[in-house]
Amino acid sequence: MWDWLVDELQPIGVLATIDRLLLSSLCTAWARYLEAELMLRREGRVLKTTNGNKVPNPWLTISRQEREQMTSLSARFGLTPTDRSKITGAMLEPPPAQATDSDGPDSPQVQAGGFTGLIGKQTKPN
Asked: Is residue 22 part of a domain?
């Protein structure tokens, strides 16, 4: 999941090194969601207690919580169409570069805009 997200998010400019914590949280939520869904397939949605009563499987709650976490974190990275349009729209108009007296109109600093150097090659966390 990590590699796929980095490969998708880096080219569109919504991933910086500082985002590793949120990205790892999204990947963790995904892994826990998959585990919960696997356990639900194995055990079923309803369990019988020792008294013979039927109760919802606790994995249902875990699945729902992790899905909600994934949805929340996904929005921060623009992984839904609505959120992606907000991020893309914001990227179309980067903040103006801070020019100094020595920067002419053709200097790299003036032409580059506010996102130059923000995103570098990501490495996998240890």
From this structure: no
